[in-house]
Design goal:
Blueprint lengths: L2 E9 L5 H15 L2 E7 L2 E8 L1 H12 L12 E7 L7 E5 L19 E3 L1 H9 L3 E5 L3 H4 L2 E3 L13 H8 L7 E5 L4 H12 L4 E5 L2 H8 L7 E3 L1 E2 L6 E2 L16
Parallel strand pairs: 2-5, 6-10, 7-9, 9-10
Antiparallel strand pairs: 1-3, 1-4, 2-3, 8-11, 12-13
């Protein structure tokens, strides 16, 4: 049986997030869905897997009313497949942030960087005036990244703030292009840079996953595999699982 995997997020006001955990967990369990969904006052984030019909039912329920109303309409969604269930259990939790960064100090709802479509990404990062920054952690970067991207060498996303403050300068680094797995970390990171005076901040719409899904391998500037937080470990072009022997080949 082929398993459908859904990676999703949406920044939206969910002040009632604690009350939404139980009904969401019950619905997922009834469908046989496994994985992790995080709820916070700022929105939803997670990756889940199950039979195709179950994932379709969950996505439909999240997008069209139910206990969330219309607050999750337009959520960022990436669908892929796995040969076997990539998660051992289901976890639905309420947290302070849907992606841990600075405890909620940075407010991405006010402004974020300019979104760049995957089709336009190569031209942007090939421009010598663009500073390309990988916002992910060191172990993710080691598996794959874009040519010429700067590695912040972080152990956790919260460390990214220190990298920015130490290594980037708004007076020198006039144009920044950032990317992450699915786009969520760049929402916070681009807002952080804008708050610190960086004038031109761009980020890849839908993240690496959207790029690998939409850009043909022959035209790609991506090297290696894209680490994913489930049993598959890494994906490549077409969102196909990358064999272990091909991971980390960034040449």
């Amino acid at each position: 049986m082929t398993v459908r995997v859904a990676a999703l997020y949406r920044f939206a006001p969910l002040p009632d997030c604690a009350d939404l955990v139980a009904p969401l967990a019950e619905f997922c369990a009834a469908l046989g869905v496994k994985g992790t969904l995080l709820l916070a006052p700022e929105g939803i984030n997670g990756t889940v897997a199950g039979e195709a019909g179950a994932i379709d039912a969950l996505v439909s329920r999240l997008s069209a009313g139910w206990v969330f109303g219309d607050r999750l309409a337009g959520m960022e969604l990436k669908l892929s497949t796995a040969a076997a269930m990539p998660f051992a259990r289901l976890k639905v939790k309420a947290k302070r942030e849907i992606v841990s960064f600075d405890g909620g100090v940075t407010d991405q709802s006010r402004r974020v960087g300019a979104y760049v479509a995957p089709a336009d990404w190569n031209a942007l990062i090939s421009d010598p005036g663009t500073v390309v920054v990988d916002t992910r952690n060191a172990f993710e970067v080691a598996i794959g990244t874009f040519e010429g991207a700067r590695d912040p060498a972080t152990a956790s996303f919260g460390d990214f703030r220190g990298f920015v403050d130490r290594e980037l300068d708004p007076a020198r680094d006039r144009r920044i292009a950032m990317f992450c797995t699915g786009g969520i970390r760049c929402e916070k990171a681009s807002a952080y840079l804008l708050d610190r005076g960086f004038a031109e901040v761009h980020h890849l719409k839908g993240g690496i996953l959207a790029y690998l899904e939409q850009v043909p391998a022959a035209d790609s500037l991506w090297r290696g595999g894209c680490f994913v937080f489930d049993g598959r470990l890494a994906l490549g072009h077409g969102l196909a699982e990358v064999p272990e022997t091909a991971r980390g080949i960034c040449v």
